[in-house]
Records
---
Amino acid sequence: MRTIQSGKGMVLGILGSGSGSNMQAILDAIAEGSLRARIALVLSDRKDAFILQRAERHGLATGVIDCGSWATKFPDEVQQATAERLLAAGVEWVCLAGFMRMIKQPLLAAFPNRIINIHPSLLPAFPGVAAWKQALDAGVGETGCTVHWVDEGMDTGPVILQGKVPVLAGDTAELLHQRIQQLEHRLYPAALQLLSQRENHQN
Ligand code: GRF
């Protein structure tokens, strides 16, 4: 098994399908010194995703994951090729940041206990899409976001870190999503730093 050298900092690969605001938050945390890491590769299954533009602006290596005509499926052979690209770039930790396809073998096998995700609810509540809207529709008084390990299920892996936000009177889905995202931008880098410290402790 690959091990991280103590004190070297984490080598991250980011997979995203959308805006990339969580990737930006990770970059900001690295720049301000609160997270010892570097991003070695950013991949998206959508060639027009803003996450790729953001990454390029920061001079990061980027690439497109080509799933052909599959709208949501992430075929095994594409997962294998993705794993190889990440490994070739030196990636040690894979961070999903708004990546809209399900991770299965062989990506999980290539990065055992090294793939994490951020989800906009207090898991196990409201897995799946538009979790903030699910929370609003359910009438809960608080929701939040979760950084968790990725397994073969839909947002089912063990929780690493969670943060709560209130649902306020008059909230719209958009307002609630914004409040959750503000917290995500603190929680994701904090969770990575926590994992980095744990790892260094074990080595
Ligand atoms: C975040 O809300 C995250 O919780 C969910 O997808 C969204 C990604 O946003 N998994 P961004 O692309 O990081 O801005």
---
Amino acid sequence: MASKKLAPFGTSIFSEMSTLAVKHEAINLSQGFPDFEGPSELIEWACEALRSGNNQYARSMGHPRLVSAIAEKALRDHGLVYDPYTEVVVTSGGTEAIASTILSLIEPGDEVILLEPFYDSYLPCVAMAGGVPRFTTLRAPRFEVDLDELRSLFTARTRLLILNTPHNPTGKVFTRQELELIAKCVEDHDGVVLSDEVYEHLTFGNARHVPMASVPGMRERTISIGSTGKTFSLTGWKVGWATGPERLIRAVQSAHQFVTFATATPLQLAVAKALTTQGEAYFKRFCEEYTERRDYLVAALRDVGFDPVTPDGAYFVLAGFSRLSSLDDCAFARELVVKHKVAAIPPSVFYAARPGEGRKLLRFAFCKKMETLRAAAARLQAMAGRTPGFL
Ligand code: PMP
């Protein structure tokens, strides 16, 4: 039986919905993993690395080639300078970077500020560290930060604020101005930001990703989290990283060395090559393809009576369903998967203080082939009693 710290969290909603999707042969728009392969050259590079004797533990903080590639990328993309050997840690996915950051920085009783709705691993990690979570709510439809509420959460015990931009599940991309206002609160209370930026390359239209570490004064108090899962459509590789000032990265490493010690060596080598060779053309095409998927899913949802909020980033759509059902999000998600064979996530699980905010919404993932999205649209049309034929 899990300890008292973990007992309240039960089974992750992603496992639950994916299991239901398999059982009911549903189209799975619940969990955020692509149903297509990542670039074939990366898979070749991983095979080459496997065949050429790179199968023992890597350097704990990351293979020299990968930490160098990550530091070069931060400089090239954002003008951020990190020492590859002291200010970068390679982890087993963004998930491990989040866990190792929280476990290493939080003393029992320290307060951690979360902006809800939030990615589901944050709260259990805070609980495992003995931290005390404090919540502020990003409210639909624009999901803006309530600065007065945010300011009121800071106390002498505040240690960490967890930020996620581009944001899962809302698709919000925080503007520089918003980040500056959040940064001011953190600086005034001598706090640290864990900035989860695993969707940094997924922004649409005029939205641009702004790293928290690029806000003046914040490089010294921000741990930025990245991952290759989203960027290269290889979520199963679980290669992520944390970058930050040496004093904070030393702390993250002190947890990382005992959590996983090191990340799969051949995959690190393939990712190092990808980060140094995949340039602007790759990312341009990547965003164009995702824009097409986003636009299609938003239009398809609207067409059958959902009220989707068009996301500026990441690969999820939050859609209101008040016009389609009087159920709450968990019951409607179950009905959708069992009766109509489309799986989505009930987002009330991403809230702690105000779960009511998510009860009339569902989260759909669009990191799927166009044919998968078309098939899902046809099933949703059948649910709404419409003749198929949309788009
Ligand atoms: N942060 C956010 C906001 C995510 O959505 C995810 C993955 N769904 C992660 C972190 C975890 O990334 P990884 O798969 O690299 O562990």
---
Amino acid sequence: MKKLRVKVPATTANLGAGFDTFGLALTLYNEFEVEEHDGVVIETIPEDPFLQNPENNLFVQVLKYSCEKRGKTFHGAKVRQITNIPVARGLGSSATAIVAGILVSSAVSNVELTDERFFETAYRFEPHPDNLLPAWKGGFITALKAGQKTYYQKVNFPEDLKAVVVVPDFKLSTEEARKVLPEKIPLKDGIFNLQRASLFISALVNGRYDLLKVAMEDRFHQPYRKRLIPAFDDVISAAYDSGAVGASLSGAGPTILALATENFEKIGSFMVEAFRQAGVSAEYMVLDIDREGAKLEIVE
Ligand code: HSE
């Protein structure tokens, strides 16, 4: 096997009302370089002893699984992993490892990567197409899983909207953030989200950014998850006060996303300040939308 490199974008899921449905790829990337090797050797940048352990390394686990699925023994790999996406912050960091593992395995085994093959492996590691799909395909995607099949569509995302992501300095696992969700949702809340998610897509298509604030309201997950995120409401208000056109929790959190056409630095600093007032330090990044998704190249 030659040396392969895969670059996979960060993703922000849900975008408010589109819980477990909408996902958007962002221009922040994790990179995975891999070559054949006897035994597993993992170098991580930045240094991360946890990820250097093959048992904890999702990318290696996906390679191993895919290899064994083809009836072969996994002998090892030499991996160099560059992590730019903050871990356990709601920016799809695990999805990048899964997508990278699948792309490498499919390139090595020379089989066409169909949706069916992709999801058969991907869902063993993570059940969220709203992160997996934009990480793989890029852009803004609306997705659903029905039985064994996943249906999805990429929807054009406006060129002039950027994402300001505000990342607080504490981790929140998706598992923890799903535990606080109720089993049942009242019909009126179902209608509330259905109307807003539909409005979100229509507003994007028609360029009506003035509607995004209402369209990104949510009653499925944010009202429950915000208990885990100090100053959630204040950070969302800070986004709107400083000129954002939309704001929501990013995926399962704790990162908060704002969408805007201008004033990006101001929005980021206002949101960081709202976190700071609650005693939480945070950093912001201004990102574009990644439209192409994961990229695999042969290095040598
Ligand atoms: N839609 C999922 C959730 C994304 O919000 O739990 C998890 O990354």
